[in-house]
């Protein structure tokens, strides 16, 4: 790190965006960031995008074959997304409530 960077203050930064970033991570870390990516165009993803793999892993861990709706609500995603991640659910040969209701009420299996 440059000796000069130790005296860098927020007021010395040339743009409001730089000031916001330096306020969030500190001027020393902002300088380190400039050392790594300075002079390039950098896309910084939204926080939701950064934690998406963690969210999806938790959905898979908590999935029990029947809780699509609960997980969708808990993690703010659609049931369709939960099904895409985890599949439709119950193991082959095991009946679901929909299967039983269909038999009882003359539905698709009746």
From TrEMBL:
Domain Mor transcription activator as annotated: residue spans: 1-84
Name of the protein in its database record: Mor transcription activator domain-containing protein
Native source organism of the sequence: bioreactor metagenome
């Amino acid at each position: 790190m440059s000796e000069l960077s130790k005296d860098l203050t927020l007021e010395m930064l040339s743009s409001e965006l730089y000031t916001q970033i330096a306020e969030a991570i500190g001027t020393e870390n902002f300088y380190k960031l400039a050392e790594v990516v300075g002079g390039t165009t950098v896309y910084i993803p939204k926080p939701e995008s950064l934690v998406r793999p963690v969210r999806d892993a938790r959905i898979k861990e908590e999935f029990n074959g029947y809780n699509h709706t609960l997980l969708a609500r808990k993690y703010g995603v659609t049931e369709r997304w939960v099904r895409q991640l985890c599949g439709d659910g119950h193991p082959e040969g095991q009946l679901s409530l929909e299967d039983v209701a269909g038999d009882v009420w003359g539905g698709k299996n009746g």
